[in-house]
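Need tokens for this chain, all 291 residues.
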Amino acid sequence: MTEHTLESALAAYRQTGTEADRNQAISAIAEFVYENDRLYRLPRVSDDLRGDFLLWMYPRFGRIVDRFDPERASIVTYLKSILCLALKSFARVELARQHNEGAFEFEAATEAAATGDEYGTEVAESEAPRYPQPTGCGPRTRARKDLRTRKVLLLLYKSLPFIDDTLVSRVARYTGISAQRIWGTIEALNHRCAEKTDRLAQLALLRNSYYVRAHRNLCQLREVEPGTARYEALERQYAYYTRRLASIRKAVARVSPIPSNRALARLFGMSRTTVDATLASALRDGYAGFL
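Here are the structure tokens for all 291 residues:
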């Protein structure tokens, strides 16, 4: 599939607008991309991942056919800018998925080793939790149990962005508090942190927007002759976009999705000093391993 053949297929669809010509243009793009992976080749990306990317990208070729304007750019330039950006996004998502799978496998193996179950079967709910329960029922014993429960709960709520059903069930079994009640507290904490969450979402949109603009400029710079007025204008734009992107990334780093100790103190009606001391004690005693 040559560039001329591809342009002819796209021109035919622009003239007729029929579904048959549109499908023909989509097939032409798919064949052209498959045969010309230089358009989107990136370092440290395996051939298997590149093949998965093509399968992921195929349903989006229709949008490329519909939006392509030959008066604004050639089809090769247009494809290169889209495919390079799309592959980076796909690679990030795919690598994150692989990392998550590895983490889940590691957690399962760790729990199996801790319980003596090398085959990873589930531990019966009646079995003892990771931390031993106190014996007896005196006031001092109850106080120690309450302190352990508080440590685990505060660590759980401090992990708000990462809470899931499995974690809540584990904490419910250990503390004796119903999962429904724990989820109710999580919802209340989410409500208190809504402003911070909205701010992070707005910053993420801005960050992605400037990333796309900067990358588009970079692709355009590769197609323009250095020293021309157009090249200098694109360089200025690229410098501006990268500065804005760096500024937004710093702003994102300053807004933590983890609830503050002050927010936890207000939610539970205790002093911030108590929350600070309880969390410090929980981390010192290794309670973070429970989560």
